[in-house]
């Protein structure tokens, strides 16, 4: 394990971008800069980036050998928002060349940082490390392994002060389904908790919405209110396996609840787990409208707001892997305390690569502003026309900022990147104490989840 400090050139680079942006006061005044060479991430881990005391911490996993990193290196980066200085710590060298193996980060009550991670189902281990001091990633505890009882994938780590600081880690594990482990001592030791929901082969039998390919696992994104609730959105299954709908529920005080607060069941290790469809349906899927979760956050009133993608062109080809995925739409949903309001936001473009018809550039919600999103798309958000760069004549994924003043019914779009020579993908907006929004994303080439050449870029945007 090693630390790596960046050069002064990168330090001054981020600061100069920030200064220019705030001085000129317009989005196009800033240019994105690389804050971490050689890094990628998946989107079913949380949080990939967190803010504290004027810093942003984020996690990434190297896709190949460049930028002084080796393929599969799992790294945490610290970005100082005042000085622009960045530093990096390798949590686990050559863990796995797979973006599913990226960590979930959680700030502890004393300001130290907990990182939880694992491989892409290749072993049973939930791995974790904790910084020795608040706000300093230069030294960590030794890696701890906890046997999750089945192949382990995805880490979603949330601390609930309302439960005496119990920490939950939701992951895919037993039964190839979402489960949780928990810690009552700040992440030092762990115990198995319970299965959040269940999907089995029997659920697919004789179901006309099953495509006959793959299946048997919901996909879940999580968010916490920072006190006593953990919210989630879930699909029925993998989108190539099933004509997915999308559901919302949450955990609170030992119970699983629907969106309106109706108690559905207490989660117990021995009990009969709920099905995804037992939670509140937010979007109804069909062969012509297949949903996949992108992001979820909680607003200042404690209400969830969400983003998800929908494949709209594959109805005639649902039983042929790789045949569809040329037309996706990004959707936005918001719970007002009594019902869900769901609207199509934008054209999300085509699939990222063959074999995964439902992989899109993704949407990042701003945890501090439900009226602001960043999307990655290779189509004009409004017209759907292909985005062809005037620089190299190729079609690329670009970033757009979207704002709404009517709860998501209509959106105004502003290009954050334009005429790129590489793809701008998978944005993330961490919660910070700053009046500047920091957008992070992966930039480069993504051929598959195990074959990518990406860097992590950043752009500061005033709130």
TrEMBL record:
Pfam families, A to Z: BNR_4
Record-linked SUPFAM superfamilies: Sialidases
Which N-terminal residues, if any, form the signal peptide?
Answer: 1-29
Q: Which UniProt keywords apply?
A: Signal
Q: What is this protein called?
A: BNR/Asp-box repeat protein
Its organism's taxonomic lineage begins at: Bacteria, Pseudomonadati, Planctomycetota, Planctomycetia, Pirellulales
């Amino acid at each position: 394990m090693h630390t790596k400090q960046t050069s002064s050139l990168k330090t001054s680079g981020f600061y100069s971008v920030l200064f220019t942006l705030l001085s000129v006061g317009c989005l196009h005044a800033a240019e994105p800069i690389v804050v971490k060479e050689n890094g990628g991430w998946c989107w079913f881990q949380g949080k990939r980036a967190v803010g504290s005391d004027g810093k942003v911490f984020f996690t990434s996993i190297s896709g190949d050998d460049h930028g002084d990193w080796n393929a599969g290196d799992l790294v945490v980066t610290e970005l100082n928002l005042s000085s622009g200085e960045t530093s990096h710590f390798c949590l686990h060298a050559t863990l796995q060349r797979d973006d599913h193996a990226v960590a979930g980060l959680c700030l502890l009550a004393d300001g130290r940082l907990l990182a939880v991670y694992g491989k892409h189902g290749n072993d049973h281990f939930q791995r974790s490390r904790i910084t020795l001091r608040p706000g300093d990633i230069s030294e960590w505890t030794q890696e701890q392994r906890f046997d999750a009882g089945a192949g382990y994938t995805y880490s979603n780590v949330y601390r609930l002060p309302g439960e005496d600081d119990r920490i939950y880690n939701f992951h895919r594990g037993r039964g190839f389904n979402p489960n949780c482990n928990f810690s009552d001592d700040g992440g030092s030791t762990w115990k198995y908790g319970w299965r959040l929901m269940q999907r089995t082969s029997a659920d697919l039998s004789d179901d006309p919405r099953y495509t006959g390919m793959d299946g048997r696992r919901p996909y879940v994104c999580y968010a916490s209110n920072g006190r006593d609730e953990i919210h989630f959105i879930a699909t029925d299954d993998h989108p190539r396996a099933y004509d997915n709908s999308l559901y919302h529920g949450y955990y609170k005080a030992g119970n699983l609840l629907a969106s309106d607060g109706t108690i559905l069941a207490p989660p117990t290790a021995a009990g009969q787990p709920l099905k995804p469809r037992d939670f509140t349906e937010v979007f109804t899927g069909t062969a012509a409208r297949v949903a996949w979760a992108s992001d979820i956050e909680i607003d200042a009133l404690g209400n969830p707001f969400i983003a998800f993608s929908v494949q709209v062109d594959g109805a005639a080809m649902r039983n042929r892997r790789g045949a569809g995925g040329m037309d996706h739409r990004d959707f936005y949903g918001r719970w007002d305390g009594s019902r869900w309001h769901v609207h199509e936001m934008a054209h999300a473009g085509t699939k990222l690569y063959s074999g995964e018809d439902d992989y899109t550039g993704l949407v990042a919600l701003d945890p501090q502003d439900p009226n602001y999103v960043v999307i990655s798309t290779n189509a004009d958000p409004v017209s759907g026309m292909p985005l062809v760069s005037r620089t190299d004549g190729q079609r690329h994924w670009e970033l757009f900022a979207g704002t709404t003043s009517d709860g998501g019914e209509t959106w105004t779009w502003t290009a954050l990147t334009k005429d790129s020579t590489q793809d701008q993908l998978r944005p993330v907006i961490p919660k910070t104490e700053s009046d500047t929004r920091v957008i992070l994303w992966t930039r480069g080439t993504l051929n598959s989840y195990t074959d990518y050449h990406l860097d992590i870029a950043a752009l500061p945007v005033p709130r």
